[in-house]
Structures
1.
Amino acid sequence: MLGTSLREAAAALRLGQVSATELCQKCLSFIKESSFLNAYITVTEEVALKQAAEADKRFSQGQPLGLLDGIPFAIKDNFSTCGIETTCASRMLKGYIPPYNATVVQKLFDQGAVLMGKTNLDEFAMGSGSTDSIFGPVKNPWSYSKAYREKRAVNHHDAKKESDWLITGGSSGGSAAAVSAGTCYVALGSDTGGSTRNPASHCGVVGLKPTYGLVSRHGLIPLVNSMDVPGILSRCVDDAATVLGVLAGHDPQDSTTIQDPFETFKLPEKISMKKLCIGIPKEYHAPGLSTEIVTLWSKAADMFENAGAKVVEVSLPHTPYSIVCYHVLCTSEVASNMARFDGLEYGHRSDVDDSTEAMYAATRREGFNEVVRGRILSGNYFLLKQ
């Protein structure tokens, strides 16, 4: 791939060092070479090549649409894409073709970005490993690095045949793996309780969950309406900031988005840490926390201190209740949101037709996996207890 960052690739496109079509073809070749990672559910090769050709035409006329013109990107398969299958990695939506684009997808298209494909995920974004997909698990690109294989005493050349691989984290594991493997410069995921940040940390890329309401959720098939946020995965912080500047802002189709005009920003080349205060919650040193994590945590704190930041211990006394609270809120909204998948309007429909109730039950039993069914049942239980 030409350059490691979005900005480097964008500069090369404007200087004519590479064409958008060449960049697109290179990414497509990386997708094919890394297909064993199972990062993509749908590769949109025809769409990508057409968009790249249109970008080249604009560049030849000196009229690029924006900084992202000609830049390859991928998107998690729970965002609606007009004319392109959107499955949420579930049998329930297999074959579903949305008639519209999610707002974030449309904003990237309006900038001239090139869609490489739809990425794999835990079914309906319910998971933290990207292993619960009807299309199979996503494998971490670092599983196949020479250094990791040598550490594990595994023949690097036989890596693709090995069953010994690392998870990507989830639920946006496909997007994280796609960026990490060099198949695109940026990818969108969704984040409810860590689904962008978790796989980013596993795959060695940057993961950003914007503030709720800063980026439109319109077209994002909901998990938890009150917590879902489109997330950004990139190779560097500057690229994440660039994409956020494109995506952020009010959307008339999402009443939860910010009302005030959003002013785009650019990160300074040098950031001073001297006025920064970093709090480390003492409750986060929970029983069972591995020594490796504690060491890395201390290393990060030392890096902040050495850079001039002030690192202090703080207390978040309600930490022990956070997971329980999240579980109740999450499953309750899941139960409500998943009610729309009944086999009537769209998606999978069971052949059972003894009665309407029997058809509903069979459709949902066949269409949802065990994880999704479990959250629906838990959520309905909590809602009944209110």
2.
Amino acid sequence: MTVEARFCPRCGAGLRAKPPTTCAACGYALFVNARPTANLIVHDGHRFLALKRAMEPRAGLWETPGGFCDGWEDPATAAVREGREELGVEVTLGEFVGMYVGSYDYQGERLPVLDCFFLATLDGAQVRLDPRESADLAWFDLERPPPLAFETMDRALSDAASRLGR
């Protein structure tokens, strides 16, 4: 199910149309905006680090480290935080790769997301996965990734490979 508000979040009146719309009762303008995420393409020049998802959605598929930005959190700050949380190490943030509109299934809804990807390198420490989030890790060739959990990751990896001269 896609996110579609049927009632005004301010006054509770029924809405005449799906967002973007304006509540006829109180004038509140309602939009469905993409939620920002911050993602890392941890690389060693020709390979990237992928994590196997341990939880839904899309458990068992490979992904790049990342997650949702907290309210008012800059995506670059969120990317470093996500690296620390998911990999258990500090990462060195590199070049911004790009932003890609995608979707994320959560609580029975399909949410729009704006996935922000950054190149990154490890600080040399041993990666310690959070077992609640990741079941395994592996290094893959940037030009031959495995099936990935989210379509934006394929586009970002392709752009990253181009930037890294692959």
